[in-house]
UniProtKB/TrEMBL annotation:
Organism listed in the record: Qingshengfaniella alkalisoli
Domain ABC transporter: 2-218
UniProt-listed PANTHER family: HIGH-AFFINITY BRANCHED-CHAIN AMINO ACID TRANSPORT ATP-BINDING PROTEIN LIVF (PTHR43820)
Matches recorded under InterPro entries: AAA+_ATPase, ABC_transporter-like_ATP-bd, ABC_transporter-like_CS, BCAA_Transport_ATP-bd_LivF, P-loop_NTPase
Lineage: Bacteria, Pseudomonadati, Pseudomonadota, Alphaproteobacteria, Rhodobacterales
Molecular function in Gene Ontology: ATP binding; ATP hydrolysis activity; branched-chain amino acid transmembrane transporter activity
Name of the featured protein: ATP-binding cassette domain-containing protein
GO biological process: one example: L-amino acid transport
UniProt keywords, alphabetically: Amino-acid transport, ATP-binding, Nucleotide-binding, Plasmid, Transport
Record-stated family: Belongs to the ABC transporter superfamily.
Pfam families, A to Z: ABC_tran
Source organism superkingdom: Bacteria
Amino acid sequence: MLEVRTLDVAIAGTPILRGASLDVPPGTTAGLIGRNGAGKTTFMRAVMGLLRPEGGAILLDERDVTAEPAHVRAPMGVGYMPEDRRLIPEFSVEENILLPVHATGAGVDRARLTMIYDLMPEIARFADRKALALSGGQQKLVALGRALIVGHRLLLLDEPFEGVAPALAQRLIEVIGGLRGEGMSVLLSESDHVHSADLIDELFVIERGEITRRTAQAA
């Protein structure tokens, strides 16, 4: 579903990614593990079209989207959960979840929304509450719901467990693990694989902007 080939990305003239490559086959959950500053978020943002690569290629379902704008991803079934959630505080939970749908001009898939609420009933209870009123962990769940409303083929989850209380981290693990039955591809990043060890089928380690593949058991 996702294939990234020798990606080079610089920010303000400073190289961040250096020939970074990885692939996430259909139905696979992959982990991108690296310390803070290793390039995880830069990689995710580049794949989503939020940063323009200086070299390399990004293919989604064999389509080269390297030079295409960010908004083409959602109609292709790609959802993104940024590390800092990026919710709109004044919007309700449901308004935040549906934001990618409205932004692309697509009709609301009520069956998909119901599936998300069934998967995470805790946010269904808060559907009409303003995002600002939720805890950080609850906001993470809403951000995951927003990614899922369009991400029925590929999910990019940037540090989904960062800054979350242990109980909510465990809840996120359960929810992400439950997506395996949906047949979608997932790429999640983490500073280590303490939380994701039982979730991932493929493991990639990023260090100083370079990515190497490891066996999931070897990390």
